[in-house]
Amino acid sequence: MPVRRGHVAPQNTFLGTIIRKFEGQNKKFIIANARVQNCAIIYCNDGFCEMTGFSRPDVMQKPCTCDFLHGPETKRHHVAQIAQALLGSEERKVDVTYYHKDGKVISFLHLCQNKF
Q1: Measuring CA to CA, which residue among 84, 78, 111 is closest to residue 96?
Q2: DSSP helix/strand/coil, 7
Q3: Cβ-based neighbours of 115, under 8 Å, separated by 6 or more
Q4: Rounded distance, CA 78 to CA 93, Å?
Q5: What is the pLDDT of residues 3-22, one digit of tens each?
Q6: d(CA 47, CA 49)
Q7: Predicted structure pTM score
Q8: Among 39, 36, 33, which residue's Cα sits nearest to residue 18?
């Protein structure tokens, strides 16, 4: 007999569909809730955790602008572009420099999709 987890509401099945779709593609990603303050992270996959060095509990409920990954080489205008995309409804790709938990530089493409 399959185990049921949580409520079977449309938003939960939608998130499950997104997670299943991208997990198999070797993608590193987070999902955030755009309806709460700071667009809190509600899911991060294992690939994201491995890439950044942070555990899932370290990442959960942090702002999706990934402030915890900022460092000396992170450009303010890139951070502003990400924040602006999250406030609006357009998709934006930003090549931004972030930092691993141990301090080494990670350069990656931050894709902002604000979908309700």
Answers
A1: 78
A2: coil
A3: 34
A4: 10
A5: 455 555 555 677 787 777 77
A6: 5
A7: 0.77
A8: 33
